[in-house]
């Protein structure tokens, strides 16, 4: 009981830090960096930090801890798997759009691509994430993947998941620092130097601290064994059983899933039937 209360305390912190990170990155880029556009200018660049932090840090971290929420344990695992995959997919899309923004700006201004340490870490994080999503989808959501394969994949998936979060936090921190060194020059562009800690630097540094705190909380939640979902028995019902059963895969899902599918099919058939009847016997 005490352990669950501590979990919810950590989870609450995780949610608060999520909101704080998104608000902070938006405020920084709208108040100090001129807001947003999609025209190859520095205003297009501003989408990059916003989408990377929202997608590859905040949404990703929240998607990763989804299974640890005890409220989800009472239900079948399948809907949570789908939600986990959907959150991760959204996070992947946001990060790809975020990368498109910075590549566009670089190409429009003839700035070389992928020269910095930040960009190397960042591209590695995104590429690994894309690979992880595809492998996770194929391994855990496709019903014909054998259980033995899932068992093999799971520890790799968990390890890679944590590593991607660490990489994306490293990329965010280095990106924030790089940006502050680029823009807070002090003399040339009417800004105060970074070394004098102007308000913009305070906000951006704080964003970095919030991202690190968020990452530490997520990693703590992921690494505490007491907070893991008890043995995934549903996994077995969803996975393809070997040659002994030849019935349709839907039947091998959770029974509730079967009821839901058949009642939705029944409803769709009813609507089609009513439409056809209305066409053949018009009211007037
Ligand atoms: C998960 C987070 C992030 C990832 C994966 C990431 C990834 C990348 C990549 C791959 C590039 C290279 C684009 C090119 O070469 O055309 C880049 C550029 C850049 N990013 Fe990020 N980024 C992230 C977060 C941030 C954040 C939060 C900032 C803060 C402003 C930032 C600032 C920059 C800057 C200034 C550049 C241009 C200079 C350079 O190529 O290093 N990034 N980013």
Number of domains: 2
Oligomer: single chain
What small ligands are held by the chains?
A: protoporphyrin IX containing FE
Low-pLDDT parts are 240-255, 265-270
Strand content: under 5%
Order of helices and strands: HHHHHHHHHH
- The name of the CATH architecture of the largest domain is Up-down Bundle
Based on helices, strands and strand pairing, what is the structural class? mainly alpha
Query: Main beta sheet, described?
Result: none
N- to C-terminal separation?
A: 67 Å
Q: Can you tell me the CATH class of the largest domain?
A: Mainly Alpha
Percentage of residues assigned to helices = over 70%
CA-based gyration radius: 24 Å
CATH topology of the largest domain: Four Helix Bundle (Hemerythrin (Met), subunit A)
Helix count equals 10
Mean pLDDT: 86
What is the tally of beta strands? 0
């Amino acid at each position: 009981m005490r352990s669950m209360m501590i979990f919810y305390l950590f989870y609450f912190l995780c949610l608060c830090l999520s909101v704080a990170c998104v608000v902070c990155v938006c405020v920084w880029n709208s108040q100090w960096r001129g807001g947003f556009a999609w025209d190859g200018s520095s205003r297009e660049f501003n989408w990059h930090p916003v989408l990377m932090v929202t997608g590859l840090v905040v949404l990703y971290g929240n998607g990763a801890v989804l299974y640890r929420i005890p409220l989800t344990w009472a239900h079948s695992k399948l809907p949570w798997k789908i939600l986990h995959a959907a959150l991760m997919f959204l996070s992947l899309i946001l990060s790809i759009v975020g990368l498109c923004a910075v590549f566009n700006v670089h190409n429009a201004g003839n700035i070389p691509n992928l020269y910095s340490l930040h960009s190397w870490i960042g591209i590695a994080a995104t590429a690994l994430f894309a690979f992880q999503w595809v492998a996770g989808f194929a391994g855990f959501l496709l019903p014909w993947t054998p259980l033995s394969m899932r068992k093999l994949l799971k520890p790799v998936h968990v390890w890679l998941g944590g590593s991607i979060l660490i990489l994306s936090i490293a990329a965010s921190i280095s990106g924030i620092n790089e940006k502050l060194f680029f823009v807070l020059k002090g003399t040339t562009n009417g800004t105060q130097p970074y070394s004098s800690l102007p308000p913009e630097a305070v906000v951006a540094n704080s964003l970095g601290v919030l991202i690190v705190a968020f990452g530490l909380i997520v990693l703590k939640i992921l690494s505490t064994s007491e907070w893991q979902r008890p043995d995934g028995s549903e996994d077995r019902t969803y996975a393809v059983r070997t040659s002994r059963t030849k019935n349709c895969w839907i039947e091998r899902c959770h029974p509730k899933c079967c009821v839901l599918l058949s009642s939705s099919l029944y409803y769709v058939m009813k609507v089609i039937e009513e439409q056809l009847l209305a066409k053949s016997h018009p009211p007037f």
